[in-house]
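Morning, I've got a small favour to ask if you have a moment. I'm working through a protein record and want to make sense of it properly. The fold is given in discrete form, as structure tokens running alongside the sequence. Can you walk me through what the tokens say about the fold? Thanks so much in advance, here it is:
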Amino acid sequence: MTTVTSATTPTQNTATSSAASNNGMLSSDFQTFLTMLTVQMQNQDPLNPIESSDYAVQLATFSGVEQQVQTNTLLQSLASQMGVMGMSQLAGWVGMEARAAAPAYFDGDPVTLAPNPILGADQVILVAHDEAGNEVLRQPIEVSSEQIQWDGTNQNGTLLPHGLYTFELENYNSGSLLETVDVEVYGHIVEAQGTSAGTVLVLGGGVTIGTGDVTALREGD
């Protein structure tokens, strides 16, 4: 809980520091511009002085740059604030269970699987692999999208060790393999993190998923 909430402070401080830096650079650049403009006026050719319209163009150009810098600073600040708001909202997700096509962490409690057989399949086989990629389960299940509870055993009833497991569903029709698809699982959300790639959710076992990968939420046990 604390990790999610405290993530807002560095973001706000960074935005404030960035804005102050941009304003300082802008002020410095404006003073440099005025100095250059004064030198230009002092050293102009008396017989061919610079037109006042030229000065107006230069001032207008600098003014446009100044406004653009200020606009960019404002947009950056707004984006940072929106990111903070997003993290605050996601804080409410911590403690819930998210469904996604991701590895499931088995710690002795049953894991909820959400198989989704493809259209035309008359037989489906659930396949599980351990973290090393070894196949540890191959078992026919009903051709249904109903959720099932995996108790951590293989097809022989042997209890598998605690760890991360990935699940696939092989879809067959008349004995021919049509397609193999990932099986979505429910994982307990333990943390939300802001990264350079966006906000991610940390599930049990250290599994990370993007918020866009979540297809369903439910209350945690």
